Amino acid sequence: MNRFVILSGCSGGGKSTLLSALKAKGYATIDEPGRRIVAQEQAADGAALPWINMAAFAQRAITMALEDRERAVSLPGWVFFDRSLIDASSALKTETGDEAQLNALKHQHRYHTRVFLTPPWPEIYQQDAERQHDLTAAEQEYQRLLTTYPALGYEVVVLPKVSVEQRVEFVLTRLEMTK
Fold first, then answer.
1. What is the mean pLDDT of the chain?
2. What 3-state DSSP class applies to 4?
3. Which CATH architecture describes the domain 4-31+65-176?
4. CA triplet 100, 105, 109: central angle to 5 degrees?
5. Residue ranges of the domains in the chain?
6. Which end of the chain has fewer CB atoms surrounding its CB within 10 Å, N or C?
7. What end-to-end distance do the CA atoms of the chain give, in Å?
């Protein structure tokens, strides 16, 4: 059983809030590569931004996600990832049509078989400096991930629209069931 757990799904669906709550409970967490890249690119007046050059952004996210996985090996217990190498590879495939990176993930760089997806949640969705796409684009991304993860052999568990505390309990309970 792999201890690397993916939290993915719709942008603005509460992934980062859930990750923060898991971190507060003492679990190891890895922040979303995309938000880190956007902050770096904006600070450096770079162009590897999803609204300027999605392919370059996805390539950077793949590189960062691989580095995150390497770093996570030394962390104890469950390690929760806000998005993953699969999200970045799926974005690259959507942008360029190149399936090689995504297809390689059927056998390489595996995560826990149970992946938790946040569904679209219009009531909490907010755009900001790092999330410039609208809810429609976020919903399209969610639909893509709903098919991508199972195609790579992962079991998708859609998170309920409940409080963050209830989501934490939901995730931890579902993980205990896999032991």
1. 88
2. strand
3. 3-Layer(aba) Sandwich (3.40)
4. 135
5. 4-31+65-176
6. C
7. 8
